[in-house]
User: Which sequence fits this backbone?
């Protein structure tokens, strides 16, 4: 499918109700079993770079074309996105039979002095339920030296509880983070011990964990990480630094661990080294199918 951008623009002006009608009418599946989800919530946080290109995700037509290509491939179960991207895809009819997870907290803009203030500025549990979506995703960056972290934890706990009350997946993506003194930038601690600590903190958020899934990075000794939780887990891709072959190899190893249920990946598949989205997606879905 070649995305008709002008059709989307026209509908947004002349018939904005088409978005809600498309959401209500679409068929979808529950987020269970093994899954491959395509992540596309980066632009709303001002994170537009991929593969060393600072504005790779800035062209919405190009991004939608890549998303539609990915969603059409066999083995792709759905998408993770902010309301604007989800609604564009709804208007294109690209979400039929798919799992759709809405991104909830987008307030901590990349590179800002308030980056750790991950306020809930996109979906909430009520709007996800009203739109017939299948869950909500929350980024939880935990900086023990930053008092603002406790607000993020409180709001995330409330969101987890509200999603569970509606029977919707709460997809929690935790990181231990620190401000660097020299550069003043936020840095993620991807050591095994730090990831395990983040898992413990995130797993206990909310009044129940019955609908909580984790979204975790692939790090060294993932076996230890997966021993720290019983919650179903999806692996994230991030902005890859190595070759595609190296990235795929790390996923393949981690996908075989107990508790790992699949992948939720954006830039690694939407902007692969050779720019062949379909081929990259096919490799990823093959890894999950064989796991």
Assistant:
């Amino acid at each position: 499918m070649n995305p008709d951008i002008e059709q989307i623009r026209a509908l947004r002006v002349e018939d904005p109700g088409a978005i809600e009608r498309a959401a209500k009418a679409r068929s979808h599946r529950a987020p269970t079993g093994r899954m491959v989800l395509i992540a596309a919530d980066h632009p709303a946080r001002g994170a537009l770079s991929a593969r060393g290109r600072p504005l790779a995700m800035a062209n919405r037509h190009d991004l939608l074309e890549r998303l539609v290509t990915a969603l059409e491939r066999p083995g792709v179960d759905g998408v993770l996105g902010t309301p604007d991207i989800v609604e564009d895809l709804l208007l294109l009819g690209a979400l039929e039979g798919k799992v759709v997870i809405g991104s909830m907290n987008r307030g901590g803009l990349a590179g800002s002095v308030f980056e750790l203030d991950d306020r809930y500025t996109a979906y909430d549990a009520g709007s996800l339920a009203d739109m017939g979506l299948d869950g909500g995703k929350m980024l939880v960056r935990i900086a023990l030296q930053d008092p603002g972290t406790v607000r993020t934890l409180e709001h995330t706990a409330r969101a987890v509880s509200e999603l569970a009350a509606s029977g919707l997946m709460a997809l929690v993506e935790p990181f231990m983070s620190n401000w660097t003194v020299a550069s003043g930038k936020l840095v993620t601690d991807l050591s095994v011990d730090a990831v395990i600590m983040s898992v413990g903190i995130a797993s206990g958020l909310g009044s129940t964990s019955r609908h909580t899934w984790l979204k975790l990075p692939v790090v060294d000794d993932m076996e230890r990480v997966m021993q720290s939780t019983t919650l179903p887990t999806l692996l994230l891709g991030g902005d890859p630094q190595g070759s595609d072959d190296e990235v795929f190899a790390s996923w393949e190893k981690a996908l075989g661990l107990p508790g790992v249920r699949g992948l939720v990946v954006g830039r690694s598949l939407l902007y692969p080294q050779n720019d062949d989205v379909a081929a990259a997606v096919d490799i990823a879905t093959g890894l999950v199918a064989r796991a």
